[in-house]
Specification:
Elements lengths: L2 H16 L64 E6 L6 H10 L6 E7 L7 H20 L5 H5 L2 E3 L15 H10 L7 E5 L4 H9 L7 E6 H7 L1 H10 L4 E5 L5 H4 L5 H8 L4 H7 L18 H4 L18 E3 L6 E4 L3 H4 L2 H14 L16 E6 L6 E6 L9 E8 L2 E7 L4 E4 L7 E10 L8 E6 L4 E7 L5 E3 L2 E5 L6 E4 L10 H4 L1 E5 L1 E7 L3 E9 L11 E6 L2 E8 H5 L5 E10 L3 E10 L2 E3 L1 E6 L38 H9 L4 H4 L2 H4 L9 H10 L1
Parallel strand pairs: 1-2, 1-4, 2-3, 4-5, 5-6, 6-8, 16-18
Antiparallel strand pairs: 7-8, 9-10, 10-13, 11-12, 11-14, 14-15, 16-28, 17-18, 19-20, 20-27, 21-26, 22-25, 22-28, 23-24, 23-26
């Protein structure tokens, strides 16, 4: 902003204050005095000490390394500020890029939902340039508070209109205007503040396109610039939406430098210039302090209202000033005077310096900071019972370093993956099933990052046979369940609704008894057996307990159905890697308390190669199987379960013809040949 314009605004401000009579003498409170207690009206804003009083900024001995007393914007768990989109002509006069430098020091506290460079210089180049500088020091910033990653900030940058509003009625919807609409409709009970240091065109476009957002947005803006440079947008909002929540400043915003006794040049030179990339850049802007950058961040007020004080009440004291209500609508405030902003200079200069220094000085205990969240989590190569997972590496700013990644499925811990490895295979999954998968990074002292999450699904298995236990033939989708062929045991049914399923009929019947066995005729191969249950009789845990064996191997032991699922609720237990070599699949139910039971049975083929089988390895009687359907035959000895016995079988027969002639089946490390490294990889997997 040119000096003559600044002086003109100051004259207008002083003249307006003089014309208010007694109002001009209102006691706005003493910095550090009792009126600062008003900030307790917003629980997230808490004072961190006493006021600075008459501390002489620049000569007080306060350095960027020694945090001063006074109000500090909250950090850490208390850093939950208002939602805000910051709009300014960042490529314009020096106060605009300075405003962005200052704003970036508070992105841990403010819930930033957008950044846009508006008219008269709508290029986003300045925004990205400063985010690049922020990135140079982000690892240090984040040791002090939860500063968002540079990529998160880049993802919030939108493009503004190519010109200010040409007519009274807004036309078109810029990317930024649409973003305002989208964020105004976000699932939040909190208002969305639009801190506008530049053109009002984006706000006018958004409100014109969707007037309902006026219930959700709150606007703070520099009115004098828009009255002169973007009058159509400004006047449209003023005239057509008188109830819009709006703090508009014609002159008081200059109080950040025109109404303070602070030695701003001395302070900038001692505490801002050269402090990291952003501090060095500051020194090149508005060179009015012996050729170096001074403080003229008038647009600062648009979001300073949100940093200190009560944003819900613009008439109360705050770093962004106090504002007069008017008779224009119910939610419109304008200038009282620049002194209501400048009087807080001691505090907001000191807090700015404190935060800027964080970029060059990590917190004393960086080990309290978790690693960054893994990026770009994705899945691939889904099979009947497995899915490959990969992600981008996390970083850790503490000395302990990254220890491992923790992988969870549907909220339950599944596996730890060593640091340095950014992929794993989720095996043992049920065919045709969707899962929610999460990956977190854990450092050497146990700090855990936020979770990257994604949904994964296994492929549908080919149903070989299905039985509606205790009931008649039943069709669901493309699966037909045969009527129960057993004559041993007993049957029971209910008409109750069954929770957790749309196939109530399958779970409303049951086969039960102290002991009963299904011998199902199937081709030789590898299968997944799904046992469908619902407790339709008992009403508490411990009243029914039983075991289930499949092909002679106990798969469910002391299974308490009510404890697992409750009453009248469906659950499915899946047994993977069942190898059949005699044409018959045997499932045996044996009770230990009351009766065993089952509602339905599904048998799915998991032979991913169409049923071709490998020869038995060494002296083992059974052929190898592929329990998870990924094309690798982890069950080397053919007993249906990958265990350390399979590692021994592979090691002892590594040179055997049946192993060397089947590299696709036993090349566990994926290097195209069979060797000792495959034994080690199988050991790791097992």
């Amino acid at each position: 902003m040119h000096l003559y314009v600044v002086l003109l605004f100051r004259m207008v401000s002083e003249r307006a204050s003089a014309g208010r009579g007694e109002d001009a003498q209102t006691d706005y409170g003493t910095p550090g005095g009792t009126d600062r207690g008003t900030i307790s009206r917003r629980q997230m804003l808490k004072t961190a000490g006493v006021g600075l009083g008459a501390m002489a900024i620049g000569t007080s001995g306060v350095t960027a390394q020694s945090a001063p007393e006074g109000y500090h914007v909250p950090t850490g768990e208390d850093a939950v500020g208002p939602r805000v989109i910051y709009l300014n002509d960042f490529g314009g006069e020096g106060d605009n890029p300075q405003g962005l430098i200052h704003f970036l020091q508070y992105v841990d506290y403010l819930r930033v939902e957008g950044i846009a460079s508006t008219q008269p210089l709508p290029s986003s180049d300045e925004v990205h340039k400063q985010i690049d500088m922020y990135e140079e020091h982000w690892e240090n910033y984040r040791t002090h508070s939860d500063f968002p990653s540079p990529d998160e900030l880049r993802g919030l940058v939108t493009s503004a209109a190519s010109s200010t509003q040409s007519g009274y009625e807004p036309s078109g919807v810029s990317e930024t205007a649409q973003h305002i609409i989208d964020r105004a409709h976000a699932d939040s009970d909190d208002p969305l503040y639009l801190a506008v240091g530049g053109s009002m065109t984006e706000v006018a476009q958004a409100v014109h396109e969707d007037p309902s957002i006026t219930d959700s947005i709150r606007v703070t803006s520099v009115g004098s610039w828009n009255t002169d440079q973007d009058p159509n947008a400004r006047d449209y909002l003023y005239n057509e939406h008188p109830d819009l929540w709006w703090v508009e400043s014609d002159s008081a915003y200059t109080g950040t430098w025109t109404h303070t006794n602070a030695d701003t040049c001395g302070y900038m030179q001692e505490h801002i210039h050269g402090v990291g990339a952003l501090g060095e850049y500051w020194a090149t802007i508005e060179p009015c302090c012996n050729g170096r950058g001074c403080w003229q961040t008038g647009d600062f007020f648009t979001y300073a209202l949100l940093l200190h004080g009560d944003p819900d009440d613009p008439t109360s004291p705050s770093w962004g000033g106090r504002w007069n209500p008017t008779d224009h609508g119910s939610n419109y405030w304008t200038d009282i005077g620049g002194e209501t902003i400048g009087r807080w200079a001691d505090d907001y200069f000191a807090d700015f310096a404190r935060r800027l220094s964080w970029g060059v000085e990590p917190a004393e205990d960086p080990e309290s900071q978790p690693p960054t969240t893994p990026g770009n989590l994705s899945s691939s190569n889904a099979t009947l019972t497995s899915v490959d997972l990969s992600w981008d590496a996390s970083t850790d700013s503490g000395g302990s370093g990254l220890a491992h990644y923790a992988v969870s499925i549907d909220g339950a811990h599944f596996v730890d993956v060593p640091a340095g490895t950014t992929s794993t295979t989720l095996s043992g999954l049920a065919p045709g099933t969707s899962y929610e998968v999460g990956v977190t990074a854990v450092d050497g002292v146990g700090n855990e990052s936020g979770a990257a999450t994604t949904s994964v699904s296994t492929t549908e298995g080919s149903v070989v046979t299905a039985i509606n236990a205790g009931g008649d033939s039943y069709t669901s989708g493309d699966i037909t369940y045969e009527a129960d062929p057993l004559t041993t045991g007993s049957t029971n049914s209910t008409t109750d609704d069954i929770g957790g399923t749309s196939d109530d009929a399958l779970y409303q019947t049951e086969r039960y008894g102290e002991q009963f066995t299904y011998d199902l005729s199937v081709p030789d191969g590898t299968y997944a057996v799904q046992l469908l249950f619902a407790e339709i009789y008992h009403s508490s845990a411990g009243q029914r307990v039983f075991d289930v064996s499949v092909e002679g191997t106990e798969q469910l032991s002391e299974y308490d159905l009510y404890a697992a699922a409750g009453h009248d609720r469906a659950t499915v237990e899946t047994v993977q890697g069942v190898s059949v070599s005699d044409g018959s699949l045997t499932i045996e139910f044996t009770a230990s308390v009351d009766n065993a039971k089952v509602s339905a049975i599904r048998v799915l083929s998991t032979d991913s190669d169409g049923g071709d089988e490998l020869p038995a390895v060494g002296d083992n009687a059974n052929r190898p199987t592929d329990p998870d359907g990924d094309g690798r035959y982890e069950d080397v000895d053919g007993d249906g379960q990958p265990t350390h016995r399979d590692v021994n079988a592979l090691f002892e027969n590594i040179d055997a013809e049946e192993v060397q002639n089947n590299p696709d089946a036993f090349d566990f490390d994926g290097n195209g040949r069979i060797g000792f490294s495959d034994v080690l990889e199988l050991l790791r997997q097992v």
